[in-house]
Amino acid sequence: MGTGDLLTGAATACLGAAAWLAGGWHSGVRRARAVLAEGGTGVAGTPPPVLRVAELLARARGRLGFEWWSPAAGLVLALLGASVLPLVAGVAGVPVLRRTRLAATGRRARERRQEAVLGLCGALAGEVRAGRQPGEALRAAERDSGGLGDAQAAVLAAARFGGDVPGALAVAAGQPGAEGLRGLAACWRVAVDQGAGLAAGLDRLEGALRAERDQRSDLRAQLAGARATAVMLAGLPVLGLLLGVALGSDPLHVLLHTGAGLGCLLAGGLLEALGVWWVARIVRGAEEIS
């Protein structure tokens, strides 16, 4: 088997792994479980070997982040190119990819918390209009929304026993994505100290939070082009390798075993990293301004 066939097979395996990471594996596991449950050949009470392997791989996917595919891909390229450099690069990419994954996870958690705070404000306004006292209304609204997060016990205790509810809400607002609780604390303080309508203030607060959410959604849609550019930049080296294989050359040998190839590899890697960093910086700057 030639190097071109090996690279083509490796590319196919990488595409399959990407589909697996995207979630397709779970549907395959479910189909296999259904088929084998109907007519499997395993011993009674013992899962068939294929199903056991599928479950183990699915469990590994849940425990390991996608950053561990970087050294796996580096190992494949190291074997194909008979050089240790791809493996070293793959290992070096693990902390970068882990940081990216954790940042994405934190962003999703922050967005869920923002939605929960928005739901808390709307539910609390409805409970107050229904005639409940603020403390009782807060407990009922929190059961429906979960907007207080980790500070739920402290805030509800303050509301139940006549404590400093605005202060507890201000502390709870320190959680990522819970900044809207500062507005709720201000509404609560004004309603208690000056006798203003709590429901009316909550309606205005909910409207402001909803407008901020819509603005973030519009900005995310406008930045989709910049994100697509970053993805395209990250995928260009793979496309170049496949193009070289299609032309009948041996790009891995040239890049890893010749002086000119090593120089091109170093320069290309630096330019690639600079391009992706620059696009990511533009996106982060736009998000911070908003």
Describe the structure.
There is one protein chain. The protein has twelve helices and no strands. The chain has helices at about 5-40, 50-65, 70-80, 85-130, 135-145, 150-160, 165-170, 180-195, 200-220, 225-245, 250-255, 260-290. The termini are far apart. It is mainly alpha-helical and about 290 residues long. Helix 1 (about 5-40) crosses helix 10, helix 7 runs antiparallel to helix 8 (about 180-195) and helix 11 (about 250-255) packs across helix 12 (about 260-290).
Q: What is the CA-atom radius of gyration, in angstroms?
A: 27 Å
* Uncertain runs: 6-29, 31-44
Could you estimate the helical fraction of the residues in percent? over 70%
pLDDT averaged residue by residue? 79
Which shape, going by the Cα principal axes?
elongated
DSSP summary: helix tally: 12
Q: Biggest sheet: strands, sense, closure?
A: none
List descriptors.
single chain; mainly alpha; 290 residues; 83% helix
Quick gist of this model?
The chain is built from twelve helices and no strands. It has 290 residues and is mainly α.
Task: Give the helix/strand layout.
Layout: H1 3-39, H2 49-63, H3 69-81, H4 85-129, H5 134-145, H6 152-160, H7 165-172, H8 180-194, H9 198-222, H10 224-246, H11 251-257, H12 259-289
Helix pairs in contact: 1-2, 1-3, 1-10, 3-4, 4-5, 4-9, 5-6, 6-7, 7-8, 8-9, 10-12, 11-12
